[in-house]
Amino acid sequence: MKRKNWLVFLSLAVLLLAGCALISPIPTPYGPYGNTGGYGETKIQDNVFKVAFSGNAYTSSGQVENFALLRSAEVTIENGYRYFVIVDRGTETQTDTKVWSSPDFVFGGKETHSRTDHKPRAWLTIQCFKEKPENSSTIIYDAGQVRDNIKTQYRLAGVFRPGSEPDGFGDIKWGTDISTLSTMEYIKDLSGDRISVYAKKDDKITIGRKEPFVEAGILYFFCDGKFSGGVIATKGSLNYAKLKMCGAMSSDKRTDHP
Predict the structure, then answer these.
(1) Quick one: which of 9, 12, 89, 131 has the fewest CB in 10 Å?
(2) Looking at the 3D structure of the chain, how many domains does it have?
(3) Which letter, b or e, does each residue of 140-168 get, where b requires 16 or more Cβ atoms within 10 Å of its Cβ?
(4) Helix crossing, 61-78 with 143-153: angle to 10°?
(5) Cα torsion at 74, 76, 79, 80 (round to 10°)?
(6) Domain range for residue 134?
């Protein structure tokens, strides 16, 4: 790979680098509220709760509403109840515009970028019951069924758990010393020389099962000489546009070519 021919777009990150997170475009996972969103609840009365779920820009409004309903079912069960009804509900979208700069790996200096994200949020006020209410004019939810059905739909039984992390990226283990990798070609230093960027010599990949194929490569990051992460980089803005258009990053296999 000739570095002068590469206009780099960082399109997928796999690790934290020197305290800076490179975030891949995935929806907010189900869990307590954190940096990318999540659920939270407030107890209003003994059997009345307000439950909310906030998503990031890659989370659909439908998923946000379902996760708010799932958390409502869990809150019901955790507090010793079996059924709940929705007293009030609402949705909203937060608009967030970010402007940032990144290093130009080819010509030096920095490039300025901007992005506007739309982040959905859903909230429910629920009333819980130990016995199924009679003569109710609204839907009565069985919390156990709601919980099990939504978890099955989103395959939450197999969500990430600490300790299940991969031990490397591709065929390189985390912490591998750069001096042991003879096929790496130096590209550039970042962050006060603590982080160095490398690429494998003559490393080219195509992404996609059918045309338009995306020509890309991989950049490898070494912190203090130890392997710490990698990103997929597209060759030129046209390939980057193809990558976004076909969604190959999330749905297609990678094929290596000599």
Answers:
(1) 131
(2) 2
(3) ebebeebbeebbeebeeeeeeeeeeeeee
(4) 140
(5) -110
(6) 30-158
DSSP 3-state assignment of 144? helix
Q: Are 167 and 174 in contact (CB under 8 A)?
A: yes
Residue 74 has what pLDDT? 95
Average pLDDT (189-215) is 69
Helix, strand, coil shares of the chain as percentages rounded to 5?
20, 45, 35
Which of 98, 123, 158 is where one domain is finished?
158
Distance CA 185, CA 199 (A): 5
The residue type at 202: D
Instruction: Provide the terminal-to-terminal Cα distance of the chain, rounded to the nearest Å.
Output: 11
Residue 252 has pLDDT above 60, yes or no: no
Please say whether the beta carbons of 39 and 46 come within 8 A: no
CA distances 114 to 101, 198, 207, Å, are 9, 26, 26
Q: Is there a single domain that holds both residue 174 and residue 123?
A: no
d(CA 202, CA 256): 11
Question: What would the DSSP string read from start to end of 160-182?
Answer: --TT---SEETTEETT-BGGG-T
Residue 57: which of 20, 30, 27 has the closest Cα? 27
Q: What is the pLDDT of residues 26-59, one digit of tens each?
A: 889 999 998 889 999 999 999 999 999 999 998 9
